[in-house]
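Hello Y.,

Per our agreement to keep a running log of every chain we model this quarter, I'm adding this entry. I've kept the format consistent with earlier entries: sequence first, then predicted structure.
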Amino acid sequence: MSSFRTLDDLGDVTGKVALVRVDLNLPMKEGSATDVTRVEAVKPTILELADKGAKVLLLAHFGRPKGQRHSTMSTSFVQGDVEKVLGKEIMFIPEVMGPVVEQSIGILSDGDIGLLDNVRFWPGEEANDPEFARGMAAHGDFYVNDAFSAAHRAHASTEGLAHHLPAYAGRAMEAELKALDAALGNPEQPVAAVVGGAKVSTKLDVLENLVGKVQHLIIGGGMANTFLAARGVDVGKSLCEHDLTDTANRIMDQADHAGCTVHLPYDVVVAKEFAANPPSMRVCNVHEVAADEMILDVGPQAVEALGDVLKTCRTLVWNGPMGAFETEPFDAATVALAKTAAALTEGGSLTSVAGGGDTVAALAHARVKDDFTFVSTAGGAFLEWMEGKDLPGVAALKA
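Predicted structure for the entry above:
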């Protein structure tokens, strides 16, 4: 694992100013956050630094103001929610550099917390302008990045600051990087990957990276239909990218050469319309899908066989649902496989790492989100990591 500095590498920080990049881009309704998971994630880092006597300045983005001040996108909107989670009052500072920030630092006592305004109000943030990063860095003694979800962006506050100040991974970032290393960096083998979702086109790079790294590739969701079509299966009116069948065949060939087994469903749940509990719903072999039917989930026999595959594995990476899980009963395969993975994890035989928006929702729906080894709430960053890409925000932290 590439070494990066963590909070354990910090000396005495009393009276020092910590610039801490966090993700406070919270979903809002009527002026307050509907979900504070992201604040909960960074709470340990913020409180640890405050308890050690640092003056903690929080850097975050909120929405997409495109380099201009926007009255509805100030981070002051989330101040109350952050205070509630931290159990501490924080000072709002309507700038990210300059005399106002300087004065505010003078007012803050050791162990106090300040929240700077939306870094994306300044065009230098998304442009990763070195002068802008230098301006922010002038106020800090060290930099902590605890926003893995923004690590795939090379912005001034996620990447640029690390070039101007001693840089450390916060506790949430550290946990994420350790989990990801255990899943694909240096995993216990055999490794299985579950990749689901609607389209092959959005996960091409993921699939091509995984076939060289895992022993079992389990494909579900709408993308499985494209692979079935590539194998000559008539998928009826299922969601399918027929123009990508050559690509699907190429990926299966690559898997063959790499010694990776690709698992496609051999029984499926079909219906003539996509609705909850439709009367036309039935389970059939993949070769028996009628022209007016669509595949909406993986069948029970295939799910049982996939559960048996997981029992032989030591590591699991999961991204994307197995079927149209938002609509019952097409959530059955996702729920059953997730429960098997959770049970194996709890039994100690499997290290399970999952990530991506739909995946988190599916695991929560199956009531096993807390039973996986690690569930990443990062969407784009998790996907780019699964594609084998270097994340700028992570690379900048390497010691």
